[in-house]
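Ticket reopened. Same input as before:
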Amino acid sequence: GAVVSQHPSRVICKSGTSVKIECRSLDFQATTMFWYRQFPKQSLMLMATSNEGSKATYEQGVEKDKFLINHASLTLSTLTVTSAHPEDSSFYICSARSLSGGRPEAFFGQGTRLTVV
Amino acid sequence: AQSVTQLGSHVSVSEGALVLLRCNYSSSVPPYLFWYVQYPNQGLQLLLKYTSAATLVKGINGFEAEFKKSETSFHLTKPSAHMSDAAEYFCAVSDPPFNFGNEKLTFGTGTRLTIIP
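Engineering reply: fixed in the latest deploy. New output:
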């Protein structure tokens, strides 16, 4: 299957700083990428959907000014957590949709563990 | 609103024994259902999916799941566990139509499967 690379896998940052997480589709073009958040022992929750070249669509309750999403190319989407606070500590997972073969299918990155201290 | 309940956050089985991971869903319309597997430090990988065709769905690595509308269940099974099956398993639901890339996936909390040698 297609490969989605997410970087970094782990990051620790100080409160008030910003952190950027990258999601790359390595061997396919992804017109749509999705960002999920997972709290310990809880479900993956969709944060936003990004389409290449357009603004991301955020789910209800997700602060778009805090979680900046950029999908500048068909192989890269970034999530920037701005002015991070300890409550932003979580596991963030991206997913990219491939349209190859006429069958859209979603592939997931390995996730990023963010710890804000 | 859709929801997914995975009974048992941790399941341990002996190598060679039957694997049974439970998933119950709640949906106002006939759903599409999925099982994903996540190995340590890797992304989510699609195991199998139910999309209103055959109720018994076969997936990769010898796993299968049966959609039971009367029980609102979609339990995942494998006749004989292998050490390599140790991973986190997620059940997910989506309203149709679904093209395997729909962003509106609702995930369960996951079940960690441990294989005892």
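The mean pLDDT of chain B is 88. The longest strand of chain B covers residues 87-94. Please confirm and we'll close it.
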